[in-house]
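Example 3.2
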Amino acid sequence: MSSDSEWILSRCDELLASFTQYEERAFLQQVKQLVLKQDQRLSQTEGELDGRIWNPGKW
């Protein structure tokens, strides 16, 4: 996980502790899910790129 993602997640946790409105809390929960999903997609894409570059069948 990147340092930016970790920072966003920790900031969301801090804000969740201080917010009481349902809408605000729901929004922050969705932001956290989005960050986690984007980080997962980035990791998968990097792995796919590595796999395609180092495919000996295409050398």
